[in-house]
Write a structure and sequence with these properties.
about 325 residues; 434 Repressor (Amino-terminal Domain); Rossmann fold; 12 strands; elongated; LacI family DNA-binding transcriptional regulator
């Protein structure tokens, strides 16, 4: 007999000397409901375990209407922030007996559409999505079709859908104020040239902090092309220095990494004087000569809230909920 033979309920029933229905009741957690004796139930479970029984999820989903799987679509799973999200979400979902299926959109709405469609075809019970630019129609369609859904990190204010994100405006405001408080006069913000709410809110927070201390005339935002950030940084950052910028505030972790490659090649006296701050820490920061303060996002809280809201939606209907969590300033001083 092949070691890969699929073990059925009938196989377990024959080994245990009971009916297939009795095995089904026990393995589906209904032993009390159908008054199965404890000794019999334990014998069935022991035999199922010894035979390495794996439940037929497709059949189970047909009976219950659920597959106990959740789809997670991020922009790029190799991004440390999103890989950390996936790790935490997977652990939290496992505690609730859910499995997480992952996919990356690569910031491309067409790929996002394909990944979402694939996850839905696999029968996921709900979706957590980091939407990319231009994906409003996709999200609206999911909402229209009553797919349990939570947007993560980014959201569309015109779409009535649940979301969980950082309070990006306040985080950027705090980070800009930090640079000003430690003596920098003209911090420049480096952001992506995209029309997404988290990026716009971070830029807005920077501008408000500068305006509140009377530095409106020193507001300076450099927009990098998302598909060629290093090339954009090489072109724009020296211009910012020449125009008087004495510090950089990076709008994302990946922007930080791209810009550090550019900054390390600048004159030593420029590097020693420049102020740096960003979002999300990175081990690479420890190897850079200049201290880099950053906003630490509460990834555990964000992941847990996303999962809680999604499960509530799957169990009780699409009640819209929104959460903006506060980040923590991690000050790195020379």
């Amino acid at each position: 007999m092949s070691s890969l033979k699929k073990i059925s309920l009938k196989d377990i029933a024959e080994a245990a000397g009971v009916s297939t229905a009795l095995v089904s009741f026990v393995l589906n957690g209904k032993k009390k409901e159908y008054r199965v004796g404890e000794e019999t139930a334990q014998r069935i479970l022991k035999i199922a375990n010894e035979m390495n029984y794996q439940p037929n999820l497709a059949a189970k989903s047909l009976r219950s209407g659920k597959t106990e799987t959740i789809g997670l679509v991020v922009s790029d799973i190799s991004n440390p922030f999103f890989s950390q999200l996936a790790r935490v979400l997977e652990d939290e979902a496992a505690k609730r007996n859910y499995t997480v299926l992952f996919g990356s959109s690569d910031e491309n709405k067409d790929k996002m559409d394909r990944v979402v469609g694939s996850l839905i075809n696999k029968g996921v019970d709900g979706l957590i999505i980091v939407p990319c630019e231009g994906s409003e129609k996709i999200i609206s369609s999911l909402v229209h079709n009553n797919i349990p859904l939570v947007l993560f990190d980014r959201y569309f204010s015109e779409i009535n859908v649940s979301y969980v994100a950082l309070n990006n405006f306040n985080a950027s405001y705090v980070l800009t104020t930090h640079l000003l408080d430690i003596g920098y006069n003209a911090p420049c913000m480096v952001a992506y040239d995209v029309d997404l709410i988290h990026m716009k809110e971070r830029v807005r927070g920077y501008k408000k902090a500068m305006s509140d201390v009377g530095k409106r005339n020193l507001i300076n935002v450099a927009f990098l092309k998302q598909n060629t950030p290093k090339k954009s940084a090489d072109r724009l950052l020296p211009k910012m220095i020449d125009s008087g910028a004495d510090a950089f505030l990076f709008a994302t972790n990946m922007i930080s990494l791209s810009c550090l490659y550019t900054i390390k090649d600048m004159d030593k006296d420029v590097i020693e004087k420049i102020g740096l701050a960003g979002f999300d820490g990175n081990p690479v920061f420890d190897f850079f000569n200049v201290p880099i303060s950053y906003i630490r996002q509460p990834i555990d809280i964000l992941a847990q809230k996303s999962l809680e809201i999604l499960i509530d939606s799957m169990d009780n209907g699409n009640t819209v909920q929104s959460v903006l969590a506060e980040g923590e300033l991690i000050e790195m001083l020379a």
